[in-house]
From TrEMBL:
Alphabetized PROSITE patterns for the sequence: PROKAR_LIPOPROTEIN (PS51257)
Name of protein: Beta-barrel assembly machine subunit BamF
Highest taxon, organism lineage: Bacteria
InterPro entries hit by this protein: DUF3035
Length: 176
């Protein structure tokens, strides 16, 4: 009888432990960007622009192998147009508007690293791995918060600081 109780307790414990494998409501936190669920990525689907018939067929450009198409996506020009800019002002080379060339030159006056994203990603992975070595847990944990707790800002302290300085600030939810 005692072995049956012990077996039942172990099974119940395993079921309870398996229930802790996902976060609340089965949803992962937003900063957990892993996608190993086998589900399609809705952000990877980009619809084509609608087909349009020009006023005259003479207005169509001559086809060039490997060239552009009128229905091809132009995300940079579309973003400029959505933000109220003029996509025709974009330069062909680097995508910087002619009026913003001085701003870009000033911002990159000390140089820029074209591989900055890869460098930051590797440093981030190294930091989280180093911070994760110090503690061990039987259940999977998210070490993002532990790794970056020293870099996190207190939003309510900064909200109060800006309010005391006289800046207009939006309403904030109450402190939990």
């Amino acid at each position: 009888m005692r072995i049956a109780h012990l077996t039942f307790g172990m099974i119940l414990g395993a079921v309870a432990l398996a229930g802790c494998s996902q976060s609340r409501d089965g949803v992962r936190p937003l900063h957990d960007l892993r996608s190993n669920s086998g589900e399609p990525n809705e952000f990877a689907i980009v619809p084509n622009k609608p087909l349009t018939i020009p006023e005259t067929m003479a207005a169509l450009p001559t086809p060039t192998p490997g060239g552009g198409n009128r229905t091809d996506q132009t995300p940079q020009a579309d973003a400029v147009a959505a933000l109220g800019g003029n996509p025709a002002r974009l330069q062909a080379g680097d995508g910087v508007a002619a009026g913003d060339a001085a701003l870009v030159q000033q911002a990159t006056r000390f140089g820029n690293d074209p591989a900055i994203r890869q460098k930051l990603a590797s440093e981030d992975a190294e930091l989280r791995q180093r911070k994760g070595r110090l503690s061990w847990s039987i259940v999977p944990r998210d070490n993002y918060g532990n790794a970056y707790s020293r870099e996190a800002l207190d939003p309510y302290a900064w909200l109060n600081r800006y309010r005391q300085a006289g800046a207009r600030t939006p309403a904030a939810p109450p402190v939990e």
